[in-house]
């Protein structure tokens, strides 16, 4: 399992794609992928503020670091799409060039669906494997897919 953070201040989409490639090269079983959230009173917040990446009120920072970036970064939509495709892509060994192509496409709902499905599957059957009834598996899958489960 590898923990990854995308959309860091001073980074770029290319750096985030290099992180994806590193996960592929390391043959990671499951990639946990979040989007940088510059919480107030942290050094990363000060860095983002100094780089003029924080626009407006601090309330734009979401409680979850899996949904979207509050920073005004270059290629923001592509970074957010990459975050959704990252773990799935690593899990299925999708080449970097395929992921580069997919993040250009505006299929956000499909990417969110794949993200939730893969995360739910890995959480229940790969990372914390345990016996589970088919009914419970379907119930949990629907919970993740519909967004009422863990982000």
Q: What's the layout of helices and strands?
A:
Layout (H helix, E strand, L loop, with lengths): L1 E5 L6 H13 L5 E5 L7 H8 L25 H16 L4 H7 L5 H20 L6 H12 L6
Parallel strand pairs: 1-2
Short description:
By secondary structure, the protein is mainly α. Helix content is 50%, strand content 7%.
Written overview of the protein:
The structure is a single chain. Strand 1, helix 1 (13-25) and strand 2 form a beta-alpha-beta unit. Helix 3 packs parallel to helix 5. Strands 1-2 form a two-stranded parallel ribbon. The chain is globular. With 151 residues, it is mainly alpha-helical. The protein has 6 helices and 2 strands.
Rg from alpha-carbon coordinates:
16 Å
Helical segment count: 6
Mean of pLDDT: 86
- Terminal Cα span: 17 Å
Written as H for each helix and E for each strand, in order along the chain, the element string is EHEHHHHH
Kindly state the percentage of residues in helix.
40-55%
| Structure summary, number of beta strands | 2
Please state roughly what percent of the residues sit in beta strands, choosing from under 5%, 5-15%, 15-25%, 25-35%, 35-45% or over 45%: 5-15%
**Which parts are unreliable, with pLDDT below 50 for 5 consecutive residues or more?**
none
For this structure, the quaternary state is: single chain
Q: Give the strand order, joined by hyphens, for the main sheet.
A: 1-2
Labels describing this entry:
mainly alpha, 7% strand, 151 residues, 2 strands, 6 helices, two-stranded parallel sheet, 50% helix
């Amino acid at each position: 399992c590898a923990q990854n953070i995308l959309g860091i201040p001073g980074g770029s989409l290319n750096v985030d794609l290099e992180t994806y490639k590193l996960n592929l090269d390391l043959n990671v079983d499951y990639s946990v992928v979040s989007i940088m959230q510059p919480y107030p009173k942290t050094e990363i917040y000060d860095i983002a503020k100094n780089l003029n990446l924080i626009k407006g009120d601090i309330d734009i920072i979401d409680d979850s670091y899996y949904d979207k970036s509050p920073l005004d970064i270059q290629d923001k939509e592509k970074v957010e799409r990459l975050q959704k495709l990252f773990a799935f892509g690593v899990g299925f060994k999708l080449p970097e060039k395929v992921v580069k192509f997919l993040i250009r496409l505006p299929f956000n709902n499909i990417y969110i669906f794949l993200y939730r499905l893969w995360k739910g599957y890995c959480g229940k059957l790969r990372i914390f494997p345990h016996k589970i009834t088919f009914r419970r598996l379907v119930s949990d899958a629907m919970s993740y897919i519909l967004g009422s489960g863990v982000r």
